[in-house]
Design brief:
The chain is an alpha/beta fold. It has 2 domains: about 5-245 and about 450-470, 3-Layer(aba) Sandwich (Aldehyde Dehydrogenase, Chain A, domain 1), CATH 3.40.605; about 245-440, Aldehyde Dehydrogenase, Chain A, domain 2 (3-Layer(aba) Sandwich). The chain is about 40% helix and about 20% strand. β8, α6 (about 175-185) and β9 (about 195) form a beta-alpha-beta unit. The longest helix has 24 residues, at about 95-120. The protein is globular, with a radius of gyration of 23 Å. The chain starts with a strand and ends with a strand. Bound molecules: nicotinamide-adenine-dinucleotide. Nicotinamide-adenine-dinucleotide binds near residues 228, 276, 379 and 450.
Length: about 475
């Protein structure tokens, strides 16, 4: 039995915690990890450890804290192959996608360390603004980017002088434990960075009640992001949430169709559709709808589902049986409500893949705005294509969505493209680039039901994980 919690620099578990086993999603018969989930007592220990170490950590010089974190980045780089293998083993995504996750984290971490080294004091004439630490940060993370979402939050908060409790996803414990073995090697002082592996619904309300958390940064579903907001209630905890989306691409008549198709296919089906900014809906102008549909079917047909470690695979499995069932029921319900399945639409049952959580890359058409699928985040390898009269019609459909995470438009007329991105209600908008495209300096935060508070990414990480002190001098 593995110990999956790291508190005060010691590996531990709750002897009374619920036992669990993780299987490889590419072959559910292979068990890869067994442990006991953390319970409330263990989460209090983590909170105590983080609180106790704060006084010491915040008083360590900035450049020393930054040096600990550069050491972490160097170790990530050194262990990138092993980490990527673990992500693929546990999450199912392609090995190359896992490697890209590590590379993106290294890039983002380096950006944060450089930015924070130079921007924690701002001079305003003789006066100044200082960005000061707030206390202990609770970082709640999902399974789809099990390394990147932890590091996106952890690196800036520690650099600023806060301590941290990471409540990692209960679906990727092997990955978070492997990451924390590397964190252990960095040699942070005890209590500065702690890991809990358990159910958020059991642990988080208890931790919030302790009144010992200064900031909470959450990435996950909209439903749970809102639950945490309700749990915080009137407590003066800084909170930010990166939540779900139904990211939309608008294809205009004059777009470069080959570019649009290749980016839509790689974005919709990367990580088997389990990417928060991946594309779920494609709105296509009438005139090119039939040609687009034909080309899209042919491109998606070329995908080759398989084990993420197999170089020939171009799409891996879903992470779990529950994601597989959720995807399948969303597709079946859409069909019942009148949608047309123009490609895929069922679990893959071939001899070599039948024990994995593989689902056929799926395209749905004939979607009406009264169907659940119209504005639903499926989080699987399923896309919907919808015919629109013109760009205005497309923007209206998009802006009716409860979500507002990411959007892309493909076309040639620069003026029209600029007008469109100005009108759409999403936190991320792209012109002739995929919905997943991102620069590490820019915020990754949705609007409406997709995001809340100040981004914990880009240069806004500083603002979220700090409190300001204004100093006036005569
Ligand atoms: P999830 O909401 O089920 O879980 C996320 C985390 O929250 C986990 O650590 C979980 O234990 C915890 N949690 C669950 N219930 C909780 C509760 N009641 N109180 C407190 N914590 C709770 O999400 P998931 O299935 O792990 O991840 C997929 C979702 O995450 C998708 O909706 C996806 O769009 C979203 N996501 C968003 C972004 C973004 O940047 N906007 C990035 C990645 C993933």
């Amino acid at each position: 039995m593995n110990k999956s919690n790291f508190i005060n620099n010691k590996w531990c578990h709750s002897p009374t915690g619920k036992p669990f086993q993780k299987v490889n999603p590419a072959n559910s018969k292979v068990i890869i990890f067994s442990s006991l989930y953390a319970n409330a007592d263990l989460s209090f220990e983590a909170v105590e450890a983080a609180n106790k170490s704060w006084a010491m950590w915040k008083n360590i010089k900035l450049n020393e804290r930054i040096e600990y974190l550069y050491r972490l980045i160097r170790l990530l780089d050194k262990n990138r192959t092993q980490l990527a293998e673990i992500i693929t083993l546990e999450n199912g995504k392609l090995f190359n996608e896992s490697l890209q996750e590590i590379s993106a984290s290294i890039l983002e971490g380096n950006y944060q360390l450089e930015f924070l080294t130079n921007n924690l004091i701002e001079k305003v004439g003789d006066h100044e603004i200082r960005y000061e630490p707030t206390g202990s940060s609770l970082l709640i993370t999902p399974w789809n980017f099990p390394i990147a979402t932890i590091l996106r939050k952890l690196i800036p908060t520690l650099a600023l002088g806060n301590t941290a409790i990471v409540k990692a996803s209960e679906n990727t414990p092997l990955t978070s434990v492997t990451l924390f073995k590397i964190i252990e090697e960095v040699g942070f002082p005890p209590g500065v960075v702690n890991l809990l592996n358990g159910f958020g619904s059991e642990l988080i309300p208890q931790i919030i009640k302790s009144n010992k958390i200064a900031t909470i940064s959450f990435t996950g579903s909209t439903k749970n992001g809102k639950k945490i907001f309700r749990n915080i209630g009137g407590k003066l905890i800084k909170y930010q949430a990166e939540m779900g989306g139904n990211n939309t691409v608008l294809i205009l008549n004059d777009s470069n169709l080959d570019l649009a198709i290749s980016s839509v296919v790689s974005n919709s089906f990367a990580c088997c559709g389990q990417w928060c900014t991946g594309t779920g809906r494609i709105l296509v102008e009438e005139k090119i709808f039939t040609t687009f549909k034909k080309k899209l079917i042919s491109a998606v047909n070329n995908l080759n589902p398989g084990n993420g470690m197999d170089k020939k695979s171009t799409i891996g499995p879903l992470i779990s049986e529950s994601q597989l069932l959720k995807t399948n029921s969303a597709v079946k319900l859409a069909k019942k409500n009148g949608a047309e399945i123009i490609l895929g639409g069922k679990r893959i049952n071939s001899e070599d893949l039948k024990y994995g959580y593989f689902y056929e890359p799926t395209i749905l058409s004939n979607i009406k705005d009264n169907m659940q699928i119209f504005d639903e985040e499926i989080f699987g390898p399923v896309i919907s294509i919808i015919k629109v009269k013109n760009a205005k019609d497309g923007i209206n459909i998009l802006n009716k969505s409860r979500y507002g995470l990411s959007f892309s438009v493909y076309g040639k007329n620069r003026k029209i493209l600029e007008e469109i991105v100005t009108k759409v209600e999403t936190g991320l908008s792209h012109i002739n680039l995929p919905t997943t495209y991102r620069d590490v300096a820019l915020p990754l935060l949705g609007w409406k039901d997709s995001g809340y508070g100040i981004a914990e990414s880009g240069r806004f990480a500083r603002d979220f994980f700090s409190r300001t002190k204004a100093i006036y001098r005569n």
